[in-house]
Design goal:
This protein is mostly beta strands and 453 residues long. It contains 3 helices and 29 strands. Strands 1-22-21-20-19 form a 5-stranded antiparallel sheet, with no helix packed on it. Strands 2-29-28-27 form a 4-stranded antiparallel sheet, with no helix packed on it. Strands 3-4-5-6 form a 4-stranded antiparallel sheet, with no helix packed on it. The N and C termini lie far apart (60 Å).
Amino acid sequence: MADSSASGSGFFAYYRQYARSGVHAASAAALTAIGLWASFTGNRSFILLAIAVYVLPPIFLYLTGEGERVPSVVGEDASTDDDPDRGNARTDETHDSDDSHDRSDGQVDRPGTDATAERRTTNKSTSVDTSGTASATDGNDDEERIDDGTDEPVSTSDDSDRDGDEPTEPDWTEIDTPTDRSLLDVVAAREGAYAVGEGGVVLVSDGDEWMVALDDGPTANANVLRGVDATDNGETIWFAGDSGVLGRYADGTLTDHSAPKDRTSTWEDVAVTGESGDERLYLVNGSGELLHGSYGEGTVSWEDIEKPGSGSSISSIRFVDDDLGYLCDTNQSVYETTDGGESFERIGIEDANAAFTDIAASATETLVTADDGSLFRHDGAVWTRRRPAEEALSAVALGDEAGFTAGDGGAVYERTDGDWKSVETPVAIDLRGIAVGNGKVVAVGAEGTIVER
């Protein structure tokens, strides 16, 4: 029998638990029914009966000790835990397994500011067929298959378990950098890496040390640089950003190619294919426009401006080879080209309810990150949604056999044996770019932060 001398706080803790139980629900229903009957008949004895039906069960259960086994939630199995506050405890499920964090405002955290963007309101989403019909998940709430309308077999080797659990052993190092300006993108080069960011800063690494290559951008006007890419042989770097700035950097020499086709809008990203001296360029902006051209003999021959999609801001563009490329926008759309950018076809993703932030691709798969912590994978047949993070993911990169994504709060996730696992880093600052190459993984972010593995 329960100790009748228990403190008031013990009873109230018990009552909070009892108030969520099926017994309480039943007694409350009885109170209502008998009270209505008393009001209808005018018999006051029914009023006393109604009060007794509601008041006596919790007192009886508490005094007899049965209250310790009252389930904390209607329909939940009874607990044998002696903790009177059991009803307020969360289950042992990790917070990452809550799939109710889809943000639906269609906006993307705009890189280039030092302040962390305000998190969006959440909204439950479903798995989606890109033909417009919803498709069922495979029974795991942590992943959603998104049919793109093809009949090809679906590979699930990359999408079997919950992602983001149990951070791996820390093996990342924070690097001393010669700037405190936010870095927004990074690319692996022939022997090191290049990072670009606010104020037009361009940093270069020789594999051991980071140095300033450019302090104020191609035009010396300190325009923000948002995207950077390298030629196939890693010998030449192109970077682009605000006010239409565009620069080429090779052998320590900068060439200014800003305002191509008289466009001075912000270039959100740049992609490069081909060898140095014979490269092909792709620029995308916040108006959903694509500009591409060919470089040769010191100049770029530009083609007409195109709009592959609806006009929503294009956040990222990547090419696998000279012909195959992908881009994503902030309106949950991904486009594919198989003819070197001459035409693009939309390949997803309906009802993603998130703004896409970055894209990476290989000959066998495409990865897309979103501002709600989702990561989408396309294997050629279907899109599969994973949610390794609660925080926004801003960047994704693919190596020969590895995959990495980074985002707010210093978050980095690595794909190991098909699963995305949280990686512990020595920083808690927002990361905006990530690259794999030359035996290293490099992530860059706010306040000049660089971490390497």
